[in-house]
Amino acid sequence: MTAERKAKIHALLKGIETGDPASVAVVNPDQYIQHNPQTHGGGEGLAALFKRLSKTSPRVNIVRIFSDGDFVFGHSEYDFSTSRVGFEVFRFEGDQTVEHWDNIQSRQGPNLSGHSMVDGPTEVLDLEYTERNRALIEKFVQTVLIGRQIDQLPQFICETFVEHNPRLSDGLLALHDALASRGPDSKLAICYEKLHRILAEGNFVLSICEGHREGIHTSFYDLFRIEGSKIVEHWDTTENVAPRSEWKNDNGKF
Questions:
Q1: How many beta carbons lie within 10 A of that of residue 244, not counting itself?
Q2: Which domains, and CATH codes, for the chain?
Q3: How confident is the model over 36-64, as pLDDT tens digits?
Q4: Does pTM top 0.85 for this prediction?
Q5: Which of 31, 94, 197, 248 would bridge with 208, disulfide CB 3.0–4.6 Å?
Q6: Which segments within 204-252 are labelled E, that is strand?
Q7: DSSP secondary structure string, 77-123?
Q8: Are 9 and 44 in contact (CB under 8 A)?
Q9: What's residue 48's pLDDT?
């Protein structure tokens, strides 16, 4: 079931390239809940989006794809009229997906350490440690990102960890400085406020959080790779949460 669901989501995302309405057959149109505020709800809305995007001669590269229970989540790069990187999360009931979330930003980089937003390992390992790794990231998010106990970073992250955020570089110091930085109003520039979901498969864990970046309501998706009991690599996307007046459905970003 896991491999089959991954394959269906892979085909769905590749369907963006062609605009073929058959690519959304995995979507249950009667139950589908769409959390992208810029997309109309239901399978019909998704088919219309794909048709519109196909006119831009898009290219889609699914770099990583994972599953966690009834969820399949992927890390992809998109070349539409502009280049973007995003995470997609789908919830299944049976053979069809009934709910979708995403977080997409413009592609930037490489960063100061030479890493792009998507390069690096893709193979899922250590399946037997999935729950241990999920618990590690939950504690990290609650303690460091939301709890702002930045001095606890070494407890969770190795000294030489690899960073793919286009604004940062490898190592603990750059991350510490970014989390501690403040804007002109003396408020933290990056402020995680609520953890919505953690998804995990083996050595990869995705956290989905809400907060503010430079005073703007923001959705934070962070993908971590774990070795042993430490975070060794990190990818992310940040996306501004559109004001309620601009939503095309009533389901909310999270």
A1: 9
A2: 2-110 (3.10.450.50), 127-240 (3.10.450.50)
A3: 888 776 665 677 777 777 777 889 999 99
A4: yes
A5: 197
A6: 204-213, 216-227, 230-240
A7: EEESSSEEEEEEEEEEETTEEEEEEEEEEE-----TTS--SS-S---
A8: no
A9: 76
